[in-house]
Design goal:
Elements: H1 5-31, E1 39-46, E2 49-58, H2 61-66, E3 78-88, E4 93-95, E5 103-108, E6 114-120, E7 133-135, E8 140-147, H3 150-153, E9 161-164, H4 166-170
Parallel strand pairs: 2-3
Antiparallel strand pairs: 1-2, 1-9, 3-8, 4-7, 5-6, 5-8
Organism: Marinobacter salsuginis
Pfam family, one: DUF192
Protein name: DUF192 domain-containing protein
Length: 172
């Protein structure tokens, strides 16, 4: 059986639609914010003052793994709080695989005290193996990702503290 021009045209349309659907399906799953994550009011307290923030809380392995992947923006006062049940080693870090916006990350101890702050840039690698990690350099049990430049802009440094809950911020 020989292919007619009409059949070839139909096959080309089918291939284009199939590939487009595949690309959309693979990318759309990471583009939206994670659904169902609780959002908490919190504040960073430093010598420069109190800075209120709204943080999405990721406390399961799956939620932490997805993090802020696929986001194209964050509100200026928004971020993500990563909570762990056990402290992480200083060598443990984060990466920017499939993360589209530059971020800063603060690593915190059990009292909410910032032990280190790192600047992270998006990774264009098609595989996670091509993305650098950003180790904490200190033991931590929580981490907070905010827009790049947030901590510097607000005078927040190592030794400063995160308080969770709006009521905790009013007394600072």
């Amino acid at each position: 059986m020989t292919a007619t021009p009409q059949r070839l045209r139909g096959l080309k349309v089918w291939v284009v639609l199939a590939v487009s659907s595949l690309i959309y399906g693979c990318s759309s799953g990471i583009a939206a914010p994670q659904e169902g994550l609780p959002v908490v009011d919190a504040c960073f307290v430093s010598a420069a003052g109190t800075v209120p923030v709204k943080l999405e809380v990721a406390n399961s392995s799956e939620q932490r793994r997805k993090g802020l992947m696929g986001r194209t923006s964050l509100a200026p006062d928004a971020g993500m709080l990563f909570e762990y049940s056990e402290p992480r080693e200083a060598s443990h870090g984060f990466w920017m695989y499939k993360t589209l916006i530059p971020l800063d990350i603060a690593y915190l101890n059990e009292d909410g005290v910032i032990g280190s702050i790192r600047q992270m840039v998006p990774c264009a690698s098609a595989t996670g193996a091509g993305c650098p990690t950003y180790p904490a350099g200190v033991s931590f049990i929580q981490a907070v990702e905010m827009n790049a430049g947030f901590f510097q802009e607000h005078g927040i440094r190592t030794g400063d503290r995160l308080f969770i809950g709006n009521g905790n911020c009013q007394t600072q």
